[in-house]
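Thanks for the sequence, V.! I ran Phosphoribosylglycinamide formyltransferase right away. Repeating your input here for the record:
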Amino acid sequence: MVNISVLVSGGGTNLQALIDKIQAGELEGVRIVQVIASREDAYALERAAKAGIKGKVVKETGRLLSELASENTDLIVLAGYMKVLEPAVIDAYRKRIVNIHPSLIPKYCGKGFYGKRVHQAVIDGKEKVSGATVHFVDEGVDTGEIILQREVPVEPGDTADTLAARVLKTEHVILAEGIKKVMAELPEKEGGKKWAE
Ligand code: GRF
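Predicted structure:
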């Protein structure tokens, strides 16, 4: 069983999508052991509480590392997490941290490209296609190896809000698919046990 810690900062719709898929039996072999928010007012914490999942507010890297270890975290999922992880966390969880970004990386990503800004930049760039990307997290911002991407059409007359809503629906689908892909490729646990056992 893969222990997932989900890191959040906002509304938590990507977290909710994972909770729903696990509860529906569409994402087997994983359990969300905790939700860690970077801010007290993250609605994602309400979603965790409703699902009976432990929720914590953690702002300091040392505490983050100890909370991750305290729940035997195998995989970290950043779902609307708005802080950049310190190198100490990246080192401790190399190729074990997954992020969802609302564009087709390497376009419209990196420093300053988050939330609505991403979608406004796509519209300003007169793109016909946008999308979402699941990728590993490394020391850079949105620079880690891509795990999965899916295109989303930009419709005439789209605003940042209408495009964001369309992309978000795809995020909710590919985050779980990306986790499945990572689990299939993860090296076996110590002692040769498969992750999904
Ligand atoms: C999403 O667009 C996600 O791609 C970005 O943060 C936004 C909010 O996600 N990283 P959520 O509703 O808090 O899951």
